[in-house]
Amino acid sequence: MRISQLSAASGVPIPTIKYYLREGLLPAGEQTSATRAEYGESHVRRLRLIRALLEVGRLPIASIRQVIAAVDDEDMDMHHVLGTAHYAIAPTVEAHAEDDDWRRARDETDRLIAGLGWLIDPEAPTRDELAQAILTLGRSGMPATGETLRPYAEAAARLVDYEIGTIPFDGPRESAVEALVVGTVVNGRVLDVMRRLAHESASARLFGVFED
Amino acid sequence: MRISQLSAASGVPIPTIKYYLREGLLPAGEQTSATRAEYGESHVRRLRLIRALLEVGRLPIASIRQVIAAVDDEDMDMHHVLGTAHYAIAPTVEAHAEDDDWRRARDETDRLIAGLGWLIDPEAPTRDELAQAILTLGRSGMPATGETLRPYAEAAARLVDYEIGTIPFDGPRESAVEALVVGTVVNGRVLDVMRRLAHESASARLFGVFED
After folding, report:
1. Other C-beta atoms within 10 Å of A97: how many?
2. Which of A172, B75, B106, B194 has its CB 3.0 to 4.6 Å from that of A156, i.e. a possible disulfide?
3. pLDDT digit string, tens, across residues A27-52
4. Structural domain boundaries, residue B112
């Protein structure tokens, strides 16, 4: 298809497509004449992935480039491609002093992950993220322990069993990464809002307020 | 206690305490002389709540004022006090066209909540939040239905059964609201990062990558 058709098929305006081509995020089409290039389904998929990373993942172009480099790197196995996407969309851990409190929270995190038997890279930024939350809970007088965190770990593990089955691993890598990013970000929002909805409902029952 | 002791007991600097007094967020102490006021435990609790709303909930002063007005309003029942705090810490729903897609997502949300038997205010902003997520999923080619959303609703309900039991409803309202805010925000972060950790582990198993 020509660039105008690619634009129609993907919903991405032509100037934006040209920008992605210049930035190297989208591979060049097959040049069929000096002024004309031919694009295919892989370009449509790539544009879908870029859009998901940009609009749903809210990633800057530099991070999108990293994720796409991972998708394109045939020497990288799927686990590490998914990991690249996962780490890119993770919130940045706030600045913190590397003091005793931090080290205790970080140790608690590592112990917890080991106790769960989860296979997590020792350098995963998610470890710091969890340590940060444990630190905040402690400082708010609600200390987190393996005991208090277990319901969250169990809920997460149960959901992931379900979610992992919805990712299309049998197709092109791009589609799997797109589903992972959209699923992680948006279903994360779904879970968060469901939890606040369930709170409201539980409170209404507890205090006998029935709004109907 | 005097203002210096209140500062020591709460960890809040004296100029900040004076600012909260001027803003009406902290009630005045009992004036014992022209230049001296006496503060009590309720002031320490109030400062804890303000800190939780400010540092954990990241609320602007105007929203903190609303939550505190609810806590102070003896005519407002506890369910509505908690609701005021909950709605204040909810993320703002992004701007969206009030078009057919939006109305469909909003109807789907209301149907889902009714189907779950949850008691949710018809005007709850969380309804719009969920509709927004449903809209994004649909636009990303991952349409959400009662079926695909049920695992999230079930996980949320199970967690809330646990969480509601950790809120101290038998003490002052301030402490309950503080626990609700910290618990909702920080345990929300815990749940989100646990989910991404569980994903990494599930992917490591699926693709046979064992990092140890």
Report:
1. 8
2. B194
3. 999 999 988 899 999 999 999 999 88
4. 40-206
